[in-house]
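Researcher: Please generate the 3D structure of the following complex. Treat every line as part of one assembly.
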Amino acid sequence: MKYLCLAYGDPKKMGALTKPEFEALVTQCKAFDAELRATGQLVEGKSLEWDVVTLRPGGPKPIVTDGPFADTKERVGGVIIIEARDLNDAIRVASLHPAARIGADLGWALEIRPYSPECHQ
Amino acid sequence: MNAREQVERVWREESRRVLATLVRLLGDLELAEDALQAAFVAALEDWPRGGVPANPRAWLVSTGRHKALDALRRQQRLDGTLSTLAERLEHEPEVTHDDEIADDRLRLVFACCHPALAPEARLALTLREVCGLGTEEIARAFLTSAPTIAQRIVRAKARLREERVPFEPPSRAELPARLDAVLHVIYLVFNEGYSATSGAGVVRADLCSEAIRLGRLVAELLPEPEVQGLLALMLLHDSRREARTSSDGELVLLDDQDRSLWRRAQIVEGVKLVESAIATRRFGAYTLQAAIAAVHAEAATPAATDWAEIVALYELLLTLTPSPVVELNLAVALAMRDGPAAGLERLERLLARGELRDYPHAHAAHADLLRKLGRRDEARAAYERALALSKQEQERRFLAGRLRDL
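Model: Done. Output below.
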């Protein structure tokens, strides 16, 4: 089964990092990324830019706003897709992602969302 | 069958055994799960190219062990420490015998049912790690959400690690208490399958089958009388599976069941197990309950049931494990042996104590006895009470039917 993981972070806090701090973070991330890839259960894993545009229905054409749908400090900064046998297996694999291991003070967190069963057919 | 299908077949048939052995080798459930998954990912890559190995289980154990060692070495590069486990793995020979593998599964059952874990955590962990059910399947079976079950499993594993629970069968001295915990988990799985406490189906056959499979596993490896007793109890109850619900999904009581639908082979096996457990004279509550089920199973018609024997067995069970539910069953058996008035007298004394005030089956039994004695108004009140308390759909329809017939 497939599971989508959304990696959250606080863009403001991350923007405030000094260059050495940021590089130290990247080095740490690389090690976890390597672990994650080594599981062979990673289908896709990508980082995102912080820029957000949201479209909402509300007329003949969608209403376009800049900014995220949910008004929170944290934004989705990365997406990964995992192939796992069940939710606990997905948790096990996703636990290797940097957002689940480090960066607590940067608002990092990882949200796991099972694909709906229809998607599996 | 192509290699991919082969891998899937091997997963179904062998993954629990491979996991159990990896748990022994690595001494940690989470490391073992990582290793198991890594071994199967490797199989998906290798087997289509190089063919399925002659002994897939040995291949998976050996590959899993190597993958675990690789992971530990990567960890070493990260933080500079080489764990004692990695050192041990590097020097230990990797030989695994089949009889050891059987023991491995038992070790895993005992660990998953460890007293350090809450009962519902034992249940979820056993179903997932020993039976191989997925988080989502367990959640469906117990009508909870997958994240709830997932969290329960994550916490249970963390607890096993914190408590440093060893993956070893318990010592002789610990065995009775530890075995009780294992049997209780199996019994809970079966019960949830057999008389689902809520939801649409009376019987969740998949849970019954899992419980019987677990019972067989433990009975094979540890032929203690109560293990045999529990296996017998499950086989005997499950033998009535087809007869217990009508074609339109309604609950059919024992008296009204078509006994030709009972599975004879399961009854024969169950009766044999009961006899063997009783012969040891070290039997307990599971064996006694199985003996009662056996008396029912051996009666060709409801009228031919040996109620005197059933009353005697319930009396013995009540001395061994005093419980209002056992006493309720005794009252019903007394009614069958000595007539409804005798049963009612015992049941009303029991109801007066108040412990079964919210137990729908007690009120349903009360109503039945009152009905048989022609006390319609009181019977109606008791059926209504039972109906108000019951949460199981078929049961509710059954009670509503009885009310209409009054």
